[in-house]
Amino acid sequence: ALELHYKPKGPTSTVPREDQGDAVAVAVALADKLDTLVGFWAIGEKPTGSGDPYQLRRAALGVIRIVLENDLRVSLGAYITKALKLHPPALAHGLKLKEDATLDEILDHLPLIDFFADRLKVFLRDQGKRHDLIDAVFALGGQDDLALIVRRVEALDAFLKTDDGANLLAGVKRAANILAIEEKKDKKPYAGPYDLKLITEKEETALAAAIEATKQDTVAAINVENFAGAMRALSELRAPVDAFFDQVMVNAEDPK
After folding, report:
1. Rounded Cα–Cα distance for residues 33 and 60 (Å)
2. Cross-strand partners of 75
């Protein structure tokens, strides 16, 4: 465990594996790397540009690879918080916070999750994943489970490679562009739910029904982390979205 916990030492180095009897090494490797990162962040020592004398990027990449290659479910926020509790003097000095600052306040001042997000983006781009899909998943907010993030990205990637996914994305872009033009023209946002009382065309009614059904199906699938199932549910919107744009006058005379 002592020998293996230093791994991975580089992008081609192996990582300790639970399925090969290295569970203790996995735990020590993660604890050591997270403790190192939290300690340096607490005293304001972060990588800058190409300068990384303490190899903190490598430590973060090591955490990412160990978690992903062992398929571990790790809440980074929770473990960073645990590590923070071991560093009160460093925190008070490095973060210039009140001595009675709460852990949440400290965590807000310690954007280590953002650093992991950037490292994960680099890692996934090196794996051939599209940067816009990675950004889309991170845009959900509150993402600190690395394995879950990767599974979301992979499901989205697979969906957008299908005809239904590509066409639905085109429909979403079309709707977003129309809204952006109207919001700029009227100088107000048009966010929020649609008004059922204003729906008159049968294609509008069908789209509204499809949206409600899809909403339930996708939430149910996401709640059990079935992201491929959530994408399949979304694909049901393709036909009603296409029919809406083909048959309904969007720029109707009635502004409502």
Report:
1. 7
2. 145
